[in-house]
Amino acid sequence: VPVSNIRNFSIIAHIDHGKSTLADKLLELTGTVQKREMKQQFLDNMDLERERGITIKLQAARMRYIMNDEPYCLNLIDTPGHVDFSYEVSRSLAACEGALLVVDASQGVEAQTLANVYLALENDLEIIPVLNKIDLPGAEPDRVAQEIEEIIGMDCSNAIRCSAKEGIGITEILDAIVTKIPPPQNTAKSPLRALIFDSYYDPYRGVIVYFRVVDGSIKKGDKICFMASGKEYVADEIGVLSPNQMQVSELYAGEVGYLSASIRSVADARVGDTITHSSKRAECALPGYSQATPMELREALEKLQLNDAALKFEPESSSAMGFGFRCGFLGLLHMEIVQERLEREYNLNLIITAPSVVYHVNLADGETVECSNPSLLPEPGKRRSIEEPYVKIDMLTPKEYIGPIMELGQERRGEFKEMNFITENRASVVYELPLAEMVGDFFDQLKSRSAKVIASEALSAIRKDVLSKCYGGDISRKKKLLKKQAEGKRRMKAIGRVDVPQEAFMAVLKLE
Ligand code: GTP
Fold first, then answer.
1. ipTM reported for the complex surpasses 0.95
2. 19 CA distance to ligand 1 centroid (A)?
3. DSSP state of 97
4. Which residues are annotated as a binding site for GTP?
5. Is it true that the peptide bond before 380 is cis, omega within 30 degrees of 0?
6. Annotated binding site
7. CA separation for the pair 36, 173 (Å, rounded)
8. Which amino acid positions bind GTP, per UniProt (predicted)?
């Protein structure tokens, strides 16, 4: 579609006022996602999520809408729901020309909504007021419309009344997006400037950047430069979000899309940075970029939790390690992904200690408390019994490994439940065993007892080669250098700060 038929908008709403429900309805009504597919897609994402331990949430979606026989391209750009991210919200809004202001007609305007409305006004966005949940018996659209008028000072006489749940008023909203929100300016001939409004780290493809082309155009294979970080890359893949990623060959001013360029660190392509061409640079970057501030672990965990609901954490202090957080994961893979993301995306250096489990302690007075640390265990007199979490595991194995696997189960306080031959050579072995016995190196042990070693080699320890600059010559000189090295090492052990590498904690666990 021509640029005059593009509309870029976002939805501003307080939590629970119906942003997601409305977004789903817009996608459904424009045929972007079929109703049946929607559930399906959700499930697919859940699988992916489980596989990778991260939530894939809607960041942007391109919809096709036909009004008066004219096709329009509507881009919905999502804004982070959390108030702490006003910078990220402001960059998402800067990528739009308009916004829907969704207010629950049974509740009214909330303070948090206001902050985002002001950000939208600062970015000169056209705001369309929408009163949602009019199907509720307690809905008072007239009162709430007046409230918006009074608080924000905008005309709400034509505010759209809708029910995202019942699908009432959705067409009116789509029509208003077309008629009220201005199209982007046609600046496709200018040097490229694209605004990054979101990004995430994909373990397979590197950082995926979401952007709005403000000026010029971008093609697959273009050599691009991020103006704030100064980093250069080749755009291996560009595409649109519909809402799944769909590759295209080129994107022009006014359009919204994503790109991947084997970017290793989110810091190279931060939200708010401007993408331009390496060979034909834009004169100045788009306004509004702000430097990253160093993150505390708590901030980083909170931020990560926003798109990874499965991540749980609470403050903890240990006598050996000092302050930290106790985190809950779906499994070791999830843990590794979270660690990787904290290190790569938030520039943190972490030490993760061995996993542990939570016990239920039944007290003498009938109460039950959770206990995750031996030092917190109630005194013997006060407790009646302790319950340990158990898992039921089903191990599928070729029949020759049944023996070693059962041995492992037995060693780990497991209780043998059953064994069935699935085929002549494959069996399923079922055990019930304490979760505490499984969270450590159980899986590694299982693999090492049942996997063949294909190749192995013993490597000697590496030392710094202090003799590298010493060709031939007198043996006493070499001895002197080696002696100096040995002395240096001894001193390091005595006075050096001990850095315990992450691997050490897991390695200790794996010792027999
Ligand atoms: P967050 O994702 O937490 O930010 O919330 P949200 O603003 O996206 O709200 P969401 O769409 O999840 O809706 C919140 C609740 O309101 C859900 O239980 C919806 O089913 C309900 N809801 C949304 N729209 C309507 C509506 O038009 N009528 C009624 N009765 N309920 C609605």
1. yes
2. 7
3. S
4. 13-20, 78-82, 132-135
5. no
6. 13-20, 78-82, 132-135
7. 23
8. 13-20, 78-82, 132-135
Atom of ligand 1 nearest to the CA of 21: 11
DSSP label at 319? T
Dist. CA 389 → ligand 1 center (Å)? 36
The pTM score is: 0.63
Phi–psi pair at 175, nearest 5 degrees: -60, -40
Please work out whether the CB of residue 136 comes within 6 Å of at least one atom of ligand 1. yes
DSSP string for residues in 209-224: EEEEEEESEEETT-EE
Assess whether the C-beta atom of 90 lies below 6 angstroms from ligand 1: no
Q: Hunting for tokens 């957080």 — which residue is that?
A: 325
**Cα-based distances in Å from 144 to 19, 96, 110, 158, 173:** 17, 26, 11, 13, 18
* C-alpha distance across the termini of the chain, in Å: 66
The Cα 49–Cα 333 span in angstroms is 12
* Residue 167 CB less than 6 A away from ligand 1: no
Question: Residue for token digits 């002001």?
Answer: 118
The token duo for 147 is 């409230």
Residue 307, ligand 1, Cβ within 6 A: no
Q: Is 457 left (phi over 0), alpha (psi -120 to 50) or beta?
A: beta
**Letter string b/e over residues 177-205, b meaning 16 or more CB atoms within 10 A of that residue's CB:** bbeebebbeebbebebbbbbbbbbbeeee
Q: In one letter, which amino acid is 403?
A: G
pLDDT 10s per residue in the chain (512 long)? Answer: 999 999 999 999 888 899 888 988 998 999 887 765 655 444 445 454 444 433 345 578 999 999 999 999 999 998 865 555 678 888 999 999 999 999 999 998 887 788 889 889 988 999 999 999 999 999 999 999 998 988 888 889 899 999 999 999 999 999 999 999 999 999 999 999 999 998 887 778 888 999 999 999 999 999 999 999 999 999 999 999 987 889 999 999 999 999 999 998 877 888 899 999 999 999 999 998 877 666 678 888 888 887 777 788 888 877 666 778 888 887 777 787 788 888 777 777 788 877 888 899 999 988 999 888 777 888 888 889 999 999 898 888 888 999 999 999 999 999 999 999 888 888 889 999 998 888 877 877 887 887 755 555 555 544 555 555 555 556 676 676 667 666 655 544 444 445 555 566 556 555 54
Q: How far is CA 343 from the centre of its chain?
A: 13
**266 closest CA partner among 311, 309, 224, 226:** 226
Identify the residue whose tokens are 């993408």. Answer: 275
Q: Helix count (H) and strand count (E) of the chain? A: 13, 24
- Cβ neighbours around 481 below 10 Å, total: 13
Q: Which atom of ligand 1 is nearest to the CA of 23?
A: 11
Here the tokens at position 350 are 């972490």
